Amino acid sequence: MSTRAQRPLATIIAILVVAVWIWWEQRERGDAPEAPPRSAPGEGREQSPPRPGGVIAPADPNAELIAAWRAGKDGTWVSGRARVMKVLSDDLEPPRHQRFLFKVQPDLVVKLSHNIDIAPRLPLREGDEFEYHGRYEMGEHGALVHWTHRDPGGSHSGGWVRVGGKTYR
User: Fold this and answer.
1) Rounded to two decimals, what is the model's pTM?
2) 150: nearest Cα among 168, 124, 127, 129
3) How do beta strands 108-115 and 142-146 pair?
4) Where are the domains of the chain?
5) How does DSSP classify residue 20?
6) Cβ proximity of 57 and 67 under 8 Å
7) How distant, in Å, are the alpha carbons of 10, 124, 129, 147 from that of 162?
8) pLDDT tens-place string over residues 145-160
9) Which of 87, 134, 147, 164 has the fewest CB within 10 Å, making it most exposed?
10) What would the CATH number be for the domain defined by 54-169?
11) pLDDT above 60 (res 64)
């Protein structure tokens, strides 16, 4: 191939490399657009979580939560799977919430707060495995996942918790 014919190919490759590099940098900084919240099973197509970048292992079921925690992104919708570390007493102030802790990694324990005035109580004990979809916040007492129920106001799709194959909204 002549030098003249190689120039357009080299230009295209250079543009692709720069585009991928810019995309990767935005993703690492959290500037890339977020995926929309996912619906509970049975509400349209289940989407798989976006592939995390950086040091989070793609196989980590809590990659979305870890990424939101590391980036300090309150209000991010996250999904994952974990085991109940400790069942806490219910918060009886209206609206009432069932609360429990789960460990995502050695330095990240998360409280899940599930509204039992809107959704059914979860049949969970310490050591039980569960899946969740809710909204991540960093509260004054640490990491929190809430909005694990339907949204009665209809402003967003809401969240859910799945225990033993049954989904609670």
Assistant:
1) 0.65
2) 168
3) parallel
4) 1-33, 54-169
5) H
6) no
7) 51, 10, 9, 14
8) 999 999 998 888 899 9
9) 164
10) 2.40.50.200
11) yes
